[in-house]
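Reference record
================
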Amino acid sequence: MVKIEAVIKPFRLTEVQEALSSLGVQGMTVFEVKGFGRQKGHVELYRGAEYKVSFVPKLMVLAVVPDTLVERAVEAIQKAACTGKIGDGKIFLSHIDDVMRIRTKETGPEAL
């Protein structure tokens, strides 16, 4: 199993959710996050005054998928989240040794 953590632009969430659902990914968790990378924030205008926004609002989508779905899930996220502009985000992959569904105590891929 692999944990996929994708940092995306907030307005691309619906597309990413639909792309993962179409592959059979049964669940995901979404966090509101802030950060910066090469984008380095931006300048906004508020009541006539400019101020620098160092941390840009993003969403982090977390999903754990079976090994058989990893490549397709990553590709689906990349296509759904891509605008072609700076700040589209990143996808991080981590191997997961085990998982347990609390209610039924199922473990492994069946618990996903």
Summary: The CA atoms of residues 52 and 71 lie 38 Å apart. Strands lie at 2-8, 29-35, 42-46, 49-53, 56-65, 89-95. Residues 2-111 form a domain with the Alpha-Beta Plaits fold (CATH 3.30.70.120). The chain is about 20% helix and 35% strand.
